[in-house]
Structure formats: C-alpha cells, structure tokens
Amino acid sequence: MRIPYTLLPSDTPLGKSFISKVPMALLEFSDFYLYCLIDTGAVISMMPGEFGESLGLEVNRGEPFVVSGIDSIAVPSYIHEVEFNINDIHCKIEVAFSYEFKFPYGLLGRKDFFDLFKLHFYQKYSYFELEIY
User: What are the structural domains of the chain?
Assistant: First the structure.
C-alpha cells in the first residue's frame, strides 16, 4: 500500500515551522486512532503511557523496559502487546508505553512492526510503501 508522507507542524522557541516528508502511518484501534512515525532508528515501537491507558491497559503492569534514544537519556517504559489495523490490515506488535514519552504521536520501530512489512521509502516523491511479507 502506498502512503503519502505527512506535513507536521513544529512550534519551537525559534518559531513555528513545518517538518515535511515525514513517513507516518495511521493506526486504527477499536475506538480511536493514532498517527505513528515510522522510525528506522527505533528498536521498539513506543507510545505515550496515557495512550496505553486509553486502550484499557494497566501500563505499569507491563514488562519493564528502559528505552534509550540518540540523546542517551534512559526512559522507563512498560511493554504490552497491542492490536490495530492499518488500511484494514490487522497487526499485533509489542509496544513500549511510557509516561515520560511526550511525543504527540507514536513511533513504529524495528521490533515486530518491521517483521510484518517490507518498507520502501521514496523520499524524493514524498511517499512510502508497506508490503506484507
């Protein structure tokens, strides 16, 4: 499936701007949806803890896991298995939920998500493709 890149607003101390050419996928849950950045540098998918609560999870009862990003800051999180659809394709992956993760979207990382799909990025043309294995 071909998915166009997303234009994201950015509001920083230096002013408002837009980040263009961002690969985002729309995850559809039973009662709501969440846009997630496809992050080739992320080991595991990650979402805000509050979103896990909205899914009915007891976030802190998941498997403890410490996420460390490019900034080397350790973020305590809890892993849960979640199910969702992307364009009517059913997916089940492990996600690290953290109350310290303040990104307004989720991240789709290599563990599990990249096992479900072949990903093809066409940066020059502002779209990506997901192909089921």
Answer: 32-132 (2.40.70.10)
| CA separation, residue 105 to residues 46, 99, 124 (Å) | 9, 13, 24
Chain-centre distance for alpha carbon 75:
16
Q: How far apart are CA 131 and CA 76, in angstroms?
A: 32
pLDDT tens for residues 26-84?
999 988 899 999 999 999 999 999 999 999 999 999 999 998 876 677 889 999 999 99
Can you give the pLDDT at residue 7?
Answer: 85
pTM of the model: 0.87
Strands 63-68 and 45-48: unpaired
Return d(Cα 56, Cα 75) in angstroms, integer.
Answer: 22
